[in-house]
């Protein structure tokens, strides 16, 4: 099987939305929508009145009309909510998903993939974070109903995903074991999703997408090959300079003087050993140039996965204002990108560029009242009676400590849920003010400005692909 050279990386929340993935796939490469928090993305887009009618167009093709209507009835506001009014809440994720939430997740994933696949027959993938476990059952099912080609999963050890995909393909219940912080009791908490329960009539079983885990070591890749009960079809091999979350360094070396994790020789990825595993792989993390593509191919890779260059292109979901300001700053001198070891409540390092007006700005950060009202990055913990509670290290510290968390784990945490939604124009409004955004990008920003043609202050996904594939005759 000959795969495209370029994967446009999944970028949450909504940065790699359907428009970007579609633009990439139409150019013969692999467009990937972010599957993170798509339930709230759909609920909020509908509350904005669904400008352009895209959500409703995709929902009108959902195989169960009743389910699609219920989602519209709950969230759609004709003409959009009044500006300055908050978005209404939707149920938070937990260890038991309500039927309402399962329906929203299935519908939202179906919508995003349906739109990304509209009008072409190219490859479309979807990206999930393994750390956000609860949606990992209904979400891929919705994407599979829309014919998603590849499921890509990072931020964790996705041993359970192949089996989940196999069960869903057969229309059977799928389940996963929930990670519970500090659990020593040996109690196992499983979540189950039964697709047949959601629909009035049984649906035709969807085809099984390929599964590409994101790995940062040959050790993890080998473990997945050995332990997964189901097929792994390829790898995204990502190094620590990539945008978004990074795998922590191996071992426990102290932070650098700038307060960043230090990666050493033990973190170097053994590419010949990855190649020897015999599956196609794409290299990610500062591979966004034709020269780096050449290097990747020479190492036996099928190609590269690129995020940062696509994040700031016209088709990305970031607001036009954030993109314009970021590109302007890159023109002056590239913003400092900090690999923040504590910003993300997941505990993984998270890349944050210095941008005034965003949560990277100490003044903006200090002014924001800490709260947790979206809860995607909460962790489960055991209450004294053996039931489960949920807490987030970025929530109000006294609340976190009341729930058994450690005060030192709250220091410097940022609310990624609210910040990332603000990035894409879906900020919650509180007392008339919007939640501040929080950008992420990779370490290497050097290829952004050269993408701007003379007199222009923006570039398209096609410009990125052309630059990456320039001179690559085989893939013209
Ligand atoms: C804005 C942004 C958001 C990202 N979000 C995710 C994500 O949700 N899940 C994921 O697996 N990778 C995420 N990534 C990583 C990309 O998919 C890709 O692997 C990475 O950006 C490649 O390195 P580069 O940034 O140097 O091009 C994100 C990257 C960026 C720039």
List the SSEs and their pairings.
Layout: E1 6-8, H1 18-26, E2 30-34, H2 38-47, H3 54-59, H4 65-75, H5 99-116, E3 124-129, H6 138-145, E4 150-154, H7 161-169, E5 174-177, E6 180-181, E7 190-193, E8 210-215, H8 218-227, E9 235-238, H9 271-276, E10 281-284, H10 290-298, E11 303-306, H11 308-311, H12 320-332, E12 337-340, E13 350-353, H13 362-367, E14 379-382, E15 388-391, H14 397-402, H15 416-423, E16 429-430, E17 433-434, H16 461-469
Task: Please explain how this structure is put together.
Helix content is 30%, strand content 14%. With 476 residues, the protein is of the alpha/beta class. The protein has a domain at 6-248 and 262-318 and 447-469: Alpha-Beta Barrel (TIM Barrel), CATH 3.20.20. Strands 1-2-3-4-8-9-10-11 form an eight-stranded parallel β-barrel, surrounded by six helices. α6 (138-145) links the parallel β3 and β4. α1 runs parallel beside α5 and α5 (99-116) packs parallel to α6 (138-145). The longest helix is centred in the first third of the chain and has 18 residues, at 99-116. It is globular, with a radius of gyration of 21 Å. The mean pLDDT is 95. Bound molecules: flavin mononucleotide. Flavin mononucleotide binds next to β3, β11 and α11.
